Amino acid sequence: MAKSHEIKVARRDVQGQGASRRLRHEGVVPGIVYGGDREPVKVQFSHNEIWLAQFNDWFYSSIIDLNLDGTIHKVLLRDMQRHPYKQLIMHLDFQRVSENEVLHASVPLTFVNEDTSPAGKAADVLVTHELKEVAIACLPKDLPESIEVDLGALKAGDIIYLSGLKLPAGVEIPALKLGKGHDDAVVIAKVAGAEEEEASAE
Length: 202
Fold this sequence. Notes:
The chain has 202 residues and is α+β, with helices and mostly antiparallel strands. Helix content is 16%, strand content 40%.
């Protein structure tokens, strides 16, 4: 189980666009926490803390402990609005999670041992990462921060599909239940020039 991360948050008593603008000028990000068996709560965050957190993968795919006046809300980030050109976060949406309910989330893929693989060491082989994240389903306690893809044995011509990923215990990929057409390629090791040769043959 991946560890959770705590972020302090305060209640937001003011509402409306004008109030939100004032908060942002004060270095505060407005947001909302919803879901579960509790009412939605309007909240506000320190912009500096959120700005630093958003550079980490865990901010997008891990359970976060929002500390609201000493009460912990276990949540997942569901939406983050950024300013179109300023280095400014405009609004955050977090959804509460229940320890007994399956949640759906997208987690990043971490590729390891590519450089030492037969394909990675071959000068005429191009290794492409077709996916950078994958949609999974699991209980909150089983949510991983990322899923590791070991490319140590990758050879020219190999394709790693979603069904070939080694998933942590308790984690599944819902798309695979929809049939072979949804078993997308994750990594492809193709000999350079193979596409041109195929096109010429056609």
